[in-house]
Amino acid sequence: MEAGLRVGDRHAVSDYMNMVLRASLYPEGFPTERMTGYVPESSLLAVEWYLPPPEIIPEQKLYKHVKTRKAIEPTPRPTLEARQIYQRVIAQIALRTLREIFDADPGQLITTIVFNGLVRTVDPATGQQIEPYLITLRATREQFADLVLTEPRFKPVECVRRHFHADVSQHPDELVPVEPVMHFSMADPRIVDPIDIISDIDKRPNLLDLSPKEFEAFIQNLFARMGFDTKLYQASGDGGVDCVAYDPDPIKGGKFIVQAKLYTQTVKPTHVRDLYGTVQHEGATKGIMITTSGYGPESYKFAARVTSTSSTARGCSPSATSTISPLASSAEERKSPDHYHLRVMPGGRGARSPLNRHAAYHDAPPRQGLSAQPWTMCGPSLALIERLSCIAPGQRHVSE
Fold first, then answer.
1. What span, in angstroms and rounded, lies between the C-alpha atoms of 19 and 23?
2. pLDDT for the residue numbered 369
3. pLDDT given for residue 341 in this prediction
4. How many CA atoms lie less than 13 Å away from 155 in the CB half-sphere?
5. Which pLDDT belongs to residue 170?
6. Which pLDDT belongs to residue 190?
7. In order along the chain (400 residues), what is the average pLDDT of each group of 10 residues?
8. Nearest of 52, 43, 37, 128 to residue 92 by alpha carbon
9. 290 in helix, strand or coil?
10. Number of neighbours of residue 60 by Cβ within 10 angstroms
11. If we measure between CA atoms, which residue out of 21, 29, 37 comes closest to residue 234?
């Protein structure tokens, strides 16, 4: 790590700053989860910090002893006062984080910090786990150097809003979110630059000829060609994430965790359960597992159960897991890989059905293939896609 810090290595600086922040002690009940991502090209460090929930502020303002009744009665804290105290708490966390990072960087590898504070809690209206951002700011070293934090009259909320143009939730007690100035995914050190696999796919139509890393890149290519904002993660330390796909659609969209399994044998149920755990940990909307082989009955039962549970909790109709359906290539189909995309159709296992065995390339408007059920399910859910293979442009799939 020391050698990496001397040259400003992205992973070394990210890991070091993560160690610095994890060593920072906070009161009992405060979350310890935080992430850092360094972007050497802009000398920027992004920080994703899990804040304590608003309930950390005591509901009772004080207690009174009523002598006549020989009783101690609590006095509730006004809602506005609790809100203002909580805003001060999260603003002070942000300022303290800025100070600790700049102080731990004497070589001045970091000139700008983006701080995003979010809270992991449960939406009382839906019963679903949510992670709204409650504070976000961007600060430079020069800006921070101007602050006098020892000033007794220092007001943290006003400071971050005026000095750093921070966005602090007006109603954090109601979990009203703010939009991050920059999403952490843009600096996540687990993300690697994608490689173009689709352009050469006609030369290697058998996906089993690809290496596991090439197969992951192939899946990332497909989602990118379908219009998703995709991030490909490195093989080690990815936390069970191969690719993350973002869909901005306000109804069907969300964050999708994608895992690619280049297997010849049946995918074990433990992999499917692990994917669901990763979906919950990452705060994603859906989990999608794609394999060249297939899944056993236990995997499908688990996927159906968690999907049904999450959908029912939101008052939605549960959807089935999904497989890949072939698209017969038309005579007018273009050769350009820019027109390739996956079409996902709802269905059961279909392991023996020729209608559920292939992924084809199809000349069609982007996103046409995403009208299937996995993208309309409510709550964290799973889609299992099996028997993935290639049909080259101009080639028709022949039923067995």
1. 6
2. 31
3. 39
4. 7
5. 95
6. 64
7. 83 92 91 90 90 92 89 92 96 96 92 94 86 94 91 92 93 93 76 55 61 84 82 65 80 82 88 87 83 86 76 39 32 35 37 30 32 37 72 36
8. 52
9. strand
10. 10
11. 37
Q: How confident is the model at residue 300, as a pLDDT?
A: 86
Q: What was the pLDDT predicted at 199?
A: 56
Tell me the whole-structure pTM to 2 decimals: 0.54
Cα-based distances in Å from 360 to 72, 334, 343, 396: 72, 13, 8, 9
Q: How far is CA 102 from CA 69, 95, 143, 304, 367, in A?
A: 56, 11, 11, 48, 44
Q: Which two tokens stand for residue 303?
A: 């996927």
Task: Give the three-state DSSP class for 93.
Answer: helix
- Identify whether the C-beta of residue 139 lies closer than 8 Å to the C-beta of residue 98: yes
Evaluate whether 39 touches 26 at the Cβ level (below 8 Å).
Answer: no
- Residues 134, 171: contact at Cβ < 8 Å? no
Cα Rg of the chain, angstroms: 25
pLDDT of residue 166: 93
Task: Compute the distance between CA of residue 26 and CA of residue 24 in angstroms, rounded to an integer.
Answer: 7
The residue assigned the tokens 């099996």 is 386
Q: What CA–CA distance (Å, rounded) separates 362 from 364?
A: 6
The sign of the torsion formed by the CA atoms of 270, 271, 272, 276 equals positive
- Cα angle, residue 48 at apex, residues 247 and 38 outer, rounded to 5°: 95
Coil/strand/helix, residue 42: coil
Indicate the length of the chain as a whole number. 400
What ranges make up the beta strands (E) of the chain? 34-39, 44-50, 60-66, 71-76, 112-118, 121-122, 129-130, 133-140, 167-168, 191-192, 229-233, 243-247, 254-261, 286-291, 322-324, 344-346, 381-385
Is residue 92 within 8 A of residue 79, CB to CB? The reply is: no
E strands, 167-294, are: 167-168, 191-192, 229-233, 243-247, 254-261, 286-291
DSSP 3-state percent helix, strand, coil across the chain (nearest 5)? 35, 20, 45
Say whether 287 sits in a helix, a strand or coil.
strand
Note the Cα 399 to chain centre separation in Å: 39
